[in-house]
Amino acid sequence: MNHLVNCIPLTLYGVLSVGLALLLARRTQKYTTRGLVFLIVSTTAFALLEVMKSQAPLNAYVSIQSPQNGETFRTPAVNVVGTVSPPDATVSVLVHPEDTDQWWVQSSPIVHSTSGHWQAVCYIGTDSMGIGRNFDIVAVGSASPWFLDALLGRTFAPGRTMQRLPLISKSQLVVIKREE
Q: Which of the four pLDDT bands, split at 50, 70 and 90, describes residue 146?
């Protein structure tokens, strides 16, 4: 039902665009086929893009197996291991230092395409920063085709920060601590 509601403004936009084009063509007495085809194709493409934007990504089940909640680490590099289903889903790992409002996108995990097991190296601070602090780790995943995720801004470049977790499938939240 939501998809139908989302289509109403697009349908109105399309009808108004075609009506405007026909009115202009009538005033100038020139009905150019190329112009009408362009208008119809561009309106259809716009409508399809808007409908695709409203689509939630296909669900992926993502979990973190290691580290465990409450573990402590002496070094900034942490090996994070998990699973994803379906095995060809896209996975990203995000780290949130407790004293900031930012989530940091980590290097892309290596995903084994047949088993769905994945592994990533995540950083909780640097050699001198982050000591004595807690860090939240979460994995996010999407089973949507990569081109659709890229088109709709659901891809995550390593090193990028965000203030909120994306609205896609998430693993459990794991809290770890960097000890002195």
A: confident
Indicate which CATH number applies to the domain containing 140: 2.60.40.10
Q: For the chain, give me the number of helices (H) and strands (E)?
A: 3, 11
pLDDT digits (tens, 9 = 90+) for 46-80: 666 665 555 555 789 999 999 999 999 999 999 99
**Cis amide linkage into residue 86, ω under 30° from 0:** yes
Quick one: which of 139, 78, 136, 84 has its CA closest to 108? 139
Whether residues 43 and 66 share a domain: the answer is no
Identify whether the C-beta of residue 172 lies closer than 8 Å to the C-beta of residue 63.
Answer: yes
Per the CB < 8 A criterion, the answer to whether 175 and 76 are in contact is: no
User: Tell me, what amino acid is at 24?
Assistant: L
